Amino acid sequence: MPIRSVGVAVKRGSEQGYAIARELLVYGKELGLDMLIDEEVVEDVNWSNTFRLGIDPVDVVIVIGGNGTLCRTLHRLGDMVVPIMTVRMGRRGFLLDVPPSEARDRLRDLVEGRYTIVEYMRLRVTIESKEVILPLALNDVVIQSWGPSRTKVVKMDVYADEDMLYSIDGDGVIVSTPLGSSAYALAAGGPLVDTDLESLVVVPLAPLQFNAKPVVLSPKRVVRIYIAMESGPAACVVDGQSIELLKPGDVVKVYKAEKPAKIIRFARVNTYARLRHTL
């Protein structure tokens, strides 16, 4: 498919990101593309053509920033699936692969078709009894203790379909994608899962029960987390970006989303080599 329109989203408040965005906007226009800047940063970048993420259609979105910027951009896109080219700023942009010095060359590669699109599984999360729309998770859904001190234990029952995995008291539980298995879930003691596999990774957070261990589930499973009536305050956090407070009796349902994230790659990604260099 020929690429005609490109939207650019940048980490807010990053002067380096704004400079890269201006360079790509000008260069993309020279290549004959309709270049648009995210309306959130139009005053900082000083570019006349804007677009609204998740509303105005574009052929490609370029994300300039780190992992948080990428996740936030995907959340704002909602159910609109758009291929994303990533420009990495900083050392720990694990999900982003184009260094700023190569951004212009990769944009030309994009126009000339020298790229592949890699699809990453995402998670959909709903809260029964609540009419809220939570974004699709690229990394993880975390049910965790909440409140000013976060010292109270979260009590919950965790099910895979109709099978109870465990009844636990602790800081919470993580449900991650294979991609997210290298993030918070890994730090909490979970396994590293190959991104070529589709699965749900369930990792308890500091459980009091000694037998509450990480579990890797089929992507066909639906994970349900029941917040006990005697539980302390809790919240549902999606990709570290979107937060919804929970109350005792709430049920959180997490399952494979129908729509994956589509990330543009210009070379093969060696996940394990990247882990060694970034973690």
UniProtKB/TrEMBL annotation:
Pfam families: NAD_kinase (PF01513), NAD_kinase_C (PF20143). One of its GO terms (molecular function) is metal ion binding. It is found in: Cytoplasm. The active site is at 67 (proton acceptor). It comes from the Archaea. Its cofactor is a divalent metal cation. One of its GO terms (biological process) is NAD+ metabolic process. It catalyses: NAD(+) + ATP = ADP + NADP(+) + H(+). Its EC number is 2.7.1.23. GO terms for cellular component: cytoplasm. Its main location: cytoplasm. Keywords: ATP-binding, Cytoplasm, Kinase, NAD, NADP, Nucleotide-binding, Transferase. NAD(+) binds at residues 67-68, 72, 139-140, 152, 171, 179, 206, 241. Belongs to the NAD kinase family. Involved in the regulation of the intracellular balance of NAD and NADP, and is a key enzyme in the biosynthesis of NADP. Catalyzes specifically the phosphorylation on 2'-hydroxyl of the adenosine moiety of NAD to yield NADP. This is NAD kinase. It comes from Ignisphaera aggregans.
